[in-house]
Design goal:
alpha+beta; 47% helix; GMP Synthetase, Chain A, domain 3; DUF721 domain-containing protein; 3 strands; 100 residues
């Protein structure tokens, strides 16, 4: 591997490194999944969630509080069904609380 002494963009780096390209693709897919759920998430909760990592068929949502996580837990079966209907292979969604 040749060392560079100048800055390159993330896009350029991901094109040259397969592992980084895979991570970038997963991050993009995670954001797309969350975007597809926006109409199913009640308006007051939309600001309480962020897209998290994808690990196989399990996807993680990052939630800002215990109260929001409790509300999201009730919606998880609907989310999984919706994502499967859109063609994503999701068997489970886990929640991780990430306070500000």
């Amino acid at each position: 591997m040749q060392r560079r002494h100048y800055a390159i963009s993330l896009e350029q780096a991901s094109q040259e490194a397969p592992a980084l390209a895979r991570l970038a693709a997963l991050a993009h897919e995670s954001k797309e999944r969350l975007q597809s759920l926006q109409t199913l998430i009640p308006m007051p909760l939309r600001s309480q969630v962020q897209a998290g990592p994808i690990e196989g068929e399990t996807w993680c949502l990052l939630v800002r509080s215990n109260a929001a996580a409790n509300k999201f837990r009730q919606l998880l079966p609907v989310f999984v069904a919706h994502l499967r209907g859109k063609g994503w292979e999701v068997s489970a969604i886990r929640l991780k609380i990430q306070p500000d």
